[in-house]
Amino acid sequence: MDETKYVLEVRNVRKYFPGVKALDDVSLKIRPGTVHAVMGENGAGKSTLMKCIYGIYKPDVGEIYIDGEKKEIKNPRDAMDNGISMIHQELHPIRPQTVSENVFLGQIPYKKRVGIRFVDYKELNERTKKIFDDLNIQMNPKEKLTNMSTSYCQLIEIARAISFGAKIIIMDEPTSSLTETETEILFRIVNQLKERYVSIIYISHKIDEILRISDDVSIMRDGRLVGMWPASELTTDIIVSKMVGREMTERFPKKNHTPGTETFLKVENFSSTNKYSFQDVNFEVKKGEIFGIGGLVGSQRSELIEALFGLRPVESGKVFIGEKELTIAEPRDAISNGMALLTEDRRKTGIIGSMSITDNIMAVSQNVDKKKYTDYGFISNEKRNAAAKKYVDAFNIKTPTLKTKIESLSGGNQQKVLLGRWMLTEPDILILDEPTRGIDVGAKYEIYELMEDMAKRGKCVIMISSEMPELMGMSDRIMVMCEGHVSGFLKGSEATDEKIMYLASTYKKGNEDNG
Ligand SMILES: Nc1ncnc2c1ncn2[C@@H]1O[C@H](COP(=O)(O)OP(=O)(O)OP(=O)(O)O)[C@@H](O)[C@H]1O
Ligand SMILES: [Mg+2]
């Protein structure tokens, strides 16, 4: 076979971390001008493989070929010189700088006047504008990034990749925090890049996206390559079975719980101090109920539950558990009243990167229930480790030891550690904000089972989700929000995409009776 027919070839790469075989003899072949999806469960080795290609990690064994030529890629600079660019899941834009300065970071054009070097802003802005114009995107090159949303920062990263003349762009879970409209924009750009013969390596847990935009699909499991297929030969079921190594026929566990008739949590006239945020929200959750909250990004769902949890100030409103009115001024108050909140953005409010898994799991319980984890007044590592181990086992968290720093776990496994942290507090009200973001299919099912189990034991589960199938598949009732207001309630069994979307985009007063 003609070797040069691939723009990138990874041959027999191995990468070990202490106690982990992250990549075990993996090979990858990328054709020019194609979208190549890389799929696999959490911890399968996808991000590690990309970091090897991009020069962040050095493979222990193996070779990388660009256009049929063997290359040493020692660092991201080498990667860029070889036409490889990577859009990270966590973006690092330089906020105080302008769009064009971010796009041309590291290659700013200069001009000389009377022997002195000046930044050539005219050239800089013109070149930036051209890139965005070619992509059909409205963007002011002179605007500062200070308040730009993630999706715009992502577009800027893409423009940056183009400015470097990248012929291979790696996207690691690019859509995990994009709205549907933003995802469409990204797909349009991906197609434009393809037309220019750029190859995209695309990592995602969203199978429908993969089937839509990719040409080839490589699937990994436990650090090994299962195989590569043309996307046209694959279906959701085939992909799932190749990723998890077994058939998975059901996406949601059987409903085994019946919500009680008794109201457990009641929220009355809840309004934010920020008049653009949630206003006058009323809802009740029964014992043993899974209560979904739907809405578009920006509907203030996260703000609402963060306020409920004492993370944001409220202007007015009351919260009751049973008959008892609560005073929630800070998260500590919410926790001591049996609430737990798994936040949407694990990096911002969740993980303590440099600390161990045990420390991360214990972070809340340790402070709430000091005595439980001490022996004769001294911190008991044995008790702490036993508690942590319980959840590492229960959620199948992939880690060599309990002492491993959480930052070295794969994205999905970090999320499971945080879930363990909250489950350890034995909450009566478990609040989950986009709980399955970045989570693979198998682990999703495990999280759904956990929700089901909580409900069966008479606990309240509140879930914010932007994934329609999950919202409809899991919720007993769904509250839909629109621009900070409750726009309606739906029974889970009666909800459809259309009904939810309708409520999510229309707020009419008088719609908000309790369903
Ligand atoms: N810097 C590191 N130090 C130690 N172990 C690591 C490091 N980076 C990755 N690993 C381990 O390598 C394995 C593969 O991780 P990787 O991040 O590549 O998975 P992934 O397929 O991207 O998963 P996800 O879908 O959850 O993002 C995991 O077991 C992870 O814990
Ligand atoms: Mg990853």
Write the layout of secondary structure elements.
Elements: E1 8-17, E2 20-30, E3 35-40, H1 46-53, E4 61-66, E5 69-71, H2 76-81, E6 84-87, H3 99-103, E7 110-113, E8 116-119, H4 121-134, H5 150-163, E9 168-172, H6 180-195, E10 199-203, H7 207-213, E11 216-221, E12 224-230, H8 236-244, E13 263-272, E14 281-286, E15 290-295, H9 301-308, E16 314-321, E17 324-325, H10 331-336, E18 339-342, H11 346-349, H12 357-362, H13 365-368, E19 374-375, E20 378-379, H14 381-394, H15 411-423, E21 429-433, H16 441-456, E22 460-464, H17 468-474, E23 477-482, E24 485-491, H18 497-505
Parallel strand pairs: 3-10, 3-11, 6-9, 9-10, 15-22, 15-23, 18-21, 21-22
Antiparallel strand pairs: 1-2, 1-4, 4-5, 7-8, 11-12, 13-14, 13-16, 16-17, 19-20, 23-24
The protein binds adenosine-5'-triphosphate (ATP) and magnesium ion.
